[in-house]
Design a protein that fits this description.
α6 crosses α9 and α8 runs antiparallel to α9. The protein has about 250 residues and is mainly alpha-helical.
Length: about 250
């Protein structure tokens, strides 16, 4: 006759303990994981980088809502990553253009920014999440604007093509979505990646803003290309010791 041995209790405050296991045929039920929906949103302590960036975007969106139209247009022009500005002040405009949300705080990209950057920061850390975001923002911008400059030099486009309004967080958000998909389970990864990819292709087919639409697809591809990197970051973060009073991710 088999003897049932009670499972040893887990110690409070000690992260990454092994859960209870079956001993000598005994069946031990694991507690159901707690659902914590508030972790989907940025917090000052849990995801300080995303939280701080969200506050900045909220302030610039409020400025865009209530500022004089002439002043706002001038600020947008100074922040634009068009060819003319990239040649003169590349670092400034690449950073300044990422401080604005095209369409305001109610736009789909604003909501995606909050959810995706929060999830990415919790899995990889704040500095690395922003590095992914900036990689998509910078590389996709250059990939779309440099050909315009070359086409103007070759005489295929007019000089007015060097001056256009190009600002917003959408390239960085698309890259962050692509990178985050690499950290999700397959049943969630592939539907999300397919849904986003099909939406971006549909925008490109509509041909309303092909340059920006190409940038979105390029930045999504940049994010997916970073899967080996973000997966390594995620493993390192999970294996890192948790400081006193901290919470394991």
């Amino acid at each position: 006759m088999e003897r049932t041995v009670p499972a040893a209790p887990l110690l409070d405050g000690v992260p990454r303990q092994r859960g209870p296991v079956a001993v000598l045929g005994a069946t031990i039920t694991r507690p159901a994981p707690r659902v914590r929906p508030w972790r989907l949103l940025p917090t000052p302590t849990g995801t300080p980088v995303t939280f701080g960036y969200t506050v900045i975007l909220a302030l610039t969106s409020l400025f865009a809502e209530f500022a004089d139209s002439g002043l706002l247009h001038a600020v947008y022009q100074d922040s634009s990553t068009d060819v003319a500005h990239l040649v003169r002040t590349p670092v400034f405009v690449l950073l300044a253009s990422a401080l604005w949300v095209a369409g305001g705080l109610l736009s789909p990209y604003a909501l995606a920014f909050v959810l995706v950057l929060t999830a990415l920061e919790r899995r990889t850390g704040g500095a690395r999440a922003i590095l992914v975001f900036l990689a998509g923002h910078v590389l996709a911008t250059l990939a779309t604007e440099v050909p315009v400059g070359l086409a103007v030099l070759a005489g295929h486009l007019p000089d007015t093509s060097l001056h256009r309004l190009d600002y917003g967080i959408s390239f960085g958000v698309a890259a962050s979505i692509g990178a985050l998909c690499g950290l999700l389970t397959p049943w969630l990864r592939w539907p999300l990646l397919t849904l986003v990819g099909c939406g971006l292709v549909a925008d490109l087919i509509a041909f309303e803003d092909p340059m920006t639409d190409w940038g979105h697809l390029i930045s999504l591809g940049i994010g997916t290309a970073l899967w080996p990197v973000v997966r390594r970051w995620h493993r390192e973060r999970r294996q890192a010791p948790v400081p006193a009073g901290g919470t394991a991710v």
